[in-house]
Specification:
By secondary structure, the protein is mainly α. The protein folds into 2 domains: 39 residues; 85 residues, Cytochrome Bc1 Complex, Chain D, domain 2 (Orthogonal Bundle), CATH 1.10.760. The chain contains 6 helices and no strands. Helix 2 packs across helix 6 and helix 4 runs antiparallel to helix 6. It is elongated. The protein starts with 5 loop residues before the first helix and ends with a helix. It binds heme C (HEC). The site of heme C has 17 residues, from helix 3, helix 4 and helix 5.
Length: 125
């Protein structure tokens, strides 16, 4: 088939080869990423969402809930889930006195509170 096509087809075949090689590398990469991520895509999205929600607290409670030694603001990292849920509930209901936490917790949905408590409980101190 290609024996009598001469130089032109040779150079276009070479061009085709390198493009094809690039394409298959690229496709391979995409498939690889898909395979690597596919089964975990949902849990990755959930984890990112959870982390972004918990980041609302970072301004005061530190990145990932870790404060500098001697800080007046309590660390959240490693705080037991049930303890945090109870504190946030009491702040929200106003039964635990607060300067700012009552306002912050009023803006959170139950789902956000759960996500935040789960996040910090599973974050090492
Ligand atoms: C504007 C700063 C600020 C932000 C933002 C903030 N906090 Fe607080 N947090 C405080 C302060 C100050 C206290 C001490 C109670 C008070 O005065 O409100 C506190 C106390 C707490 C406590 C009680 C800790 C203990 O040892 O009992 C918890 C739990 C808590 N915050 C969780 C959170 C969570 C979760 C978020 C994010 C949704 C958050 N905080 C965002 C400032 C903040």
């Amino acid at each position: 088939m290609s024996s009598n096509h001469g130089d032109r087809s040779f150079s276009s075949a070479r061009h085709g080869l390198s493009t094809g090689l690039f394409k298959s590398l690229f496709m391979g990469l995409c498939v690889g990423l898909l395979l690597a991520n596919g089964s975990h895509a949902q849990s990755t999205a959930d984890a990112l969402n959870q982390r972004a929600t918990a980041a609302m607290c970072a301004n005061c409670h530190g990145t990932d809930g870790r404060v500098v030694q001697g800080s007046a603001i309590p660390a959240l990292a490693g705080m037991p889930r049930d303890y945090m849920l109870l504190q946030l509930k009491e702040f929200k209901e106003g039964t635990r006195p607060a300067t700012v936490m009552h306002q912050i917790t009023k803006g959170l949905t139950d789902a956000q509170v759960q996500a935040i408590a789960n996040y910090y409980a599973s974050t090492p101190r």
